[in-house]
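re: ur question from yesterday

yeah so i grabbed the chain u mentioned. its 93 aa long if i counted rite. heres the sequnce exactly as i have it in my notes:
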Amino acid sequence: MPDPSIVSPADHLFEFLRELLSTLPACLHCDGEFFPVGRILDSQLRDDDELWYLIRWKDRPASEDSWEPAYNIVPGNARMVNAYHRAHPNKPK
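ran it thru and got these structure tokens back, copy pasting raw so excuse formatting
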């Protein structure tokens, strides 16, 4: 049985990739494409209790804001999502 105190190269790679993902710019994944998120404007629970965010797209006018399901948000958005909920603690999460 392998010694659990020994760190494998795969462990180093996993940690590197996790750190890299946390530094990526906020993006939303939809239909195989990535779109940069400017900021989160609002959140709501839909009828099926699914969380959705109102997104302002980076470098796009307010007329293109859209509601997106939380599951579309990729890991690079974690900081933005957390900051939104800290600023709006009474909003659905």
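noticed a couple things. Helices lie at 9-23, 78-87. also The two ends are 42 Å apart (CA to CA).
anyway ttyl
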